[in-house]
Amino acid sequence: MQSRNLKDVSWAGSEQGGGKGAIVAFRDTFYAPGPICAAQSQTPLVSKLEALQCHFTWDLDPSRSKLLHRRDKLVDIGTEEGNSWLGHIYNLRGFIQYKLGLIEDAQSFFNKAAEAFRQMRKADDGPWLAVNYGNLAWLHHHLGDQAESEAYLSKVEALMKKYPSPSQDELHAEIYAEKAWTLMKFSTDRELVTDYFQKAIRMQPDMVEWNTCHILYSKTDDVLEKMRVAKEQDPENLSLAVYYLEQRVKKGERIEDEARELARRVLRNPVSSHSGIKGILRVYRYYVSFDEAIDLAEEALENHPDERYLKRCAALYYKWFIYFSSSRPKQSTIDRAISLLKEVISLYPHCSLMKEVDLANIYTKSNHTKTIAEQMYQELLESDLEPADKQLLYNNYAKYLKCDRQEYQRSVQYHMKVAAIPHQSSFRRNSIKILEKMKNRRSNPMLREIEEFLENLQEP
User: Fold this and answer.
1) Which residues pair with 52 in a beta bridge?
2) Has residue 25 got a pLDDT over 90?
3) CA nearest neighbour of 157 among 118, 124, 125, 179
4) Among 54, 234, 242, 444, who pairs with 279 as Cys (CB 3.0-4.6 Å)?
5) pTM of the model
6) Which positions ≥6 away from 434 have C-beta within 8 Å?
């Protein structure tokens, strides 16, 4: 069935919605706590919808580029049975499809989310369905089916009465957990995400997957001990096992043999971005050897030749191998990197800018394809990009101009272009840092221009 497009979709972004009286009693537990301020034109139905706790009211309003990127990330997690976050994954995928205008796809994913929750929790209903029912209430409202929207609102109300929160001032633990997990994918407010996880875990400390996810997300001083305890509680979580290994080696432990043993376990598991494969490759790169990291990536690809996520991981480590090799890489290694990057670009058509930049940079290392790099960059520079993507491209192009073409003035100009875009990013910070270093070199012919630019630069 073809997905129907919904143009110019819009939805309320506030956690707190309108209405008084009956709405105040209706909102607690699965609704946003606190006062609700309604626009005068709002209907009682819209006021109830805005009071819900679900993806439609969590201020998730990313750019189209970010939506497509997040969708690819969720696809790479996979849908293996037994994944304790499967219901949350389907809920978020449904919301992303809605935001992209693919309404029938959205409804299908919301329905899959409900079924995944029922299978995981081995129950037909429970508080874990509140967010899902809220999403469906909003979706049917946007489709114009107000009766069905009201029906899902009634389901949320029934769950509220059957599974009340310990406190009227707080959400239910299931809501905090799903909200924390969802905001991890969109928000830069780590403190808020951590707070939601901690509240959920305090209310339901037996939920092992919540604690594991919280520990993997938060970076605290006592993380090693927390991870040791979490690993005992969640021994099959290989992402956790890999991260624990990384923390131990930072404390001075020798972990080479243990890393190799853990890699065997990772390779036996189904491929997923949560299977630990990217992490174990990182451990190999830094603490075993780069050569063994490449061999491990190739072994994984041999076992699963059609897995796009493995190709993405392998392409990444070939890139790093070529960039940081102490000697000139063999042409066969460069050719393999080029081949993998081309495949990855075709497999991630909506989120391939970084890989296209990587491919252009790898071409500069080849004996046969140096001229292709400039052609690729020119094509990318002419494309229609969002501000964050422009920063990524301009920053890399500036470095290419300096290192591969020795065009220092143009390099400076592109670093300025990055910094001038009013969007905070690692690429902007990096370009500003490079410009600051150039400013301190008194012999720089562009010294005055750089100084004036930095003096007048406004923070986003």
Assistant:
1) 31
2) no
3) 125
4) 242
5) 0.86
6) 398, 415
CA-to-CA distance for 229 and 101, rounded, in angstroms? 43
Task: Tell whether the model's pLDDT for residue 33 goes beyond 70.
Answer: no
Residues 1-32: b if buried by 16+ CB within 10 A, e if exposed: eeeeebeeeebbeebbbbbeeebeebbbbbbb
Q: List Cβ neighbours of 80 (8 Å cut-off, separation of 6 or more).
A: 270, 272
For the chain, the farthest-separated pair of C-alpha atoms sits apart, in whole angstroms, at: 74
pLDDT at 256 over 50: yes
The total of other beta-carbon atoms located within 10 Å of residue 146's CB is 12
User: Residue 460 is encoded by which pair of tokens?
Assistant: 């986003």
pLDDT at 381 over 70: yes
Cα angle 387-392-395, degrees, rounded to a multiple of 5: 115
Q: Which residue has the tokens 């409202």?
A: 141
Q: What is the DSSP string of 224-271?
A: HHHHHHHHHH-TT-HHHHHHHHHHHHHTT---HHHHHHHHHHHHHSPP
Local confidence band at 14 (pLDDT 50, 70, 90 cut-offs): very low
- Mean pLDDT, range 190-198, rounded to an integer: 95
Give the number of other Cβ atoms within 10 Å of residue 80's Cβ.
Answer: 13
The Cα 51–Cα 19 span in angstroms is 9
